[in-house]
Design goal:
Elements (H helix, E strand, L loop, with lengths): L3 H6 L4 H25 L5 H8 L3 H17 L1 H11 L1 H20 L4 H29 L4 H31 L4 H4 L2 H14 L15 H21 L6 H24 L13 H31 L4 H21 L4 H4 L1 H25 L7 H13 L1
Helix pairs in contact: 2-7, 2-8, 2-10, 3-4, 4-7, 4-11, 5-6, 5-7, 6-7, 6-10, 7-8, 8-14, 11-12, 13-14, 13-16, 13-17, 14-17, 16-17
């Protein structure tokens, strides 16, 4: 380890230097968590061909990760409060790394889907602890703002590079390496957390019971709903399977409301939904995120299955979408003061709806890859405004 003398010789005290080293490690973790959202998209046709799996089943390689990560995220934050950030960070990062290794070595498609679910769980546990660690080490003010800006920028880079990296790695090394490539870097994060992140006691003095039923229902509801939609859209499948899954999703939603209303320590207090502005903002975010993730899948299958473009070509074709998404996120918020939040949200929703309409028209008319560019720009603008 570097000594305090070496830090002083460079004009930096040990604490600030350690904080920036921790930021580098946490940003590396954030990069690969964000990367795993998009890196798998271009590889889906190759995964399907390897395992002999149809396109609709491949959806689970994507949604298994994102829904599990999102559904368990609040539980992960609560675990950090109860059992210390450092311990939670190590557990979540280790789970994410082990699941990445399992995904890369998966002998069958069900094992791959299970590994993606575990990746999502690891993300949900590690990510809140990583962000809380940054907030803890950087005092409020310009330094914390700069650190969180770096954190957000790294996440955006992970989303962008996911497309290109997926195409390049799949074409040269094979799809398994899109998961295996992150394992050594995750090991670096674990070592850095052990050495650099200070140990601390849990921030909660009282041992509060975790809302495990609420977390389970919050995750099960979207998983069942997605399963119902995916199966309903596939010809030749039993329609009652979709109906049963849809009923299960509704029951999970109702059960979640009942559990949260009776829990002494609810995961999401029902008073959260009493604020109409907050409720509308979350619904808008849900619609925009749904349109974005759906576009990723549709673009991937259209480019590779319909147009027969290889993985590398498909990844490079989708790169303008990622670049436009970052540009919109940076430039569009400057209009917020001029137009107001309401107008920006409406423009964002309209742009996302227009993007999905363009995708549908291109699929029906059978246009080339260039015809998808308007949809890519519209979905990027929609996310930026929204």
């Amino acid at each position: 380890m570097l000594s305090g003398t070496s830090f002083s010789s460079r004009g930096l005290s040990p604490a600030p230097m350690r904080a920036w080293l921790v930021l580098c490690a946490m940003s590396m973790l954030q990069f690969f968590i964000a990367l795993d959202v998009t890196v798998v998209n271009i590889a889906l046709p190759s995964i399907g061909a390897d395992f002999g799996v149809e396109g609709h089943s491949l959806t689970w390689v994507v949604v298994g990760y994102t829904i599990t990560g999102g559904g368990l995220l609040m539980l992960g934050g609560r675990l950090g409060d109860l059992f210390s950030r450092r311990r939670t960070l190590l557990v979540g990062t280790t789970l994410f790394g082990a699941a990445s290794l399992l995904a890369g070595l998966a002998p069958s498609f069900p094992v791959l889907v299970a590994a993606r679910l575990l990746q999502g769980a690891g993300e949900a546990v590690a990510l809140p602890a990583a962000m809380a660690t940054i907030v803890m080490l950087f005092p409020e003010g310009p330094r914390r703002s700069r650190a969180l800006s770096v954190w957000a920028a790294v996440a955006s880079c992970g989303l962008v590079l996911g497309f290109a990296l997926s195409g390049i790695v799949t074409a040269i090394l094979g799809w398994r390496w899109i998961f295996l490539i992150s394992v050594p870097f995750i090991l670096v994060v674990i070592v850095a957390a052990l050495v650099l992140v200070p140990a601390e006691r849990s921030t909660s003095r009282e041992r509060v019971r975790l809302d495990l039923p609420g977390s389970f229902l919050l995750t099960a509801c979207p998983l069942l709903f997605v399963y119902a939609v995916v199966e309903a859209g596939e010809p030749g499948t039993n329609p009652w399977v979709s109906v049963a899954a849809l009923v299960g999703a509704v029951l999970a939603a109702v059960g979640f409301v009942r559990v949260e209303s009776k829990s002494p320590n609810p995961l999401i207090p029902l008073t959260f939904f009493a604020d109409r502005a907050r409720l509308r903002a979350n619904l808008t975010t849900m619609l925009l995120s749904g349109a974005l993730s759906t576009s990723f899948l549709l673009f991937t299958f259209y480019l590779q299955d319909r147009l027969e473009i290889g993985p590398m070509g498909a990844g490079l074709t989708m790169l303008p979408l990622a670049v436009a998404l970052i540009a919109a996120s940076v430039l569009v918020p400057r209009l917020l003061g001029r137009w107001g939040a309401r107008a920006c949200v409406l423009v964002g929703l309209a742009a996302a709806a227009g993007a999905m309409a363009v995708v549908a028209l291109v699929a029906v008319l059978g246009g080339g890859a260039a015809w998808l560019l308007p949809a890519m720009l519209l979905i990027a603008a929609g996310m930026g405004f929204g």
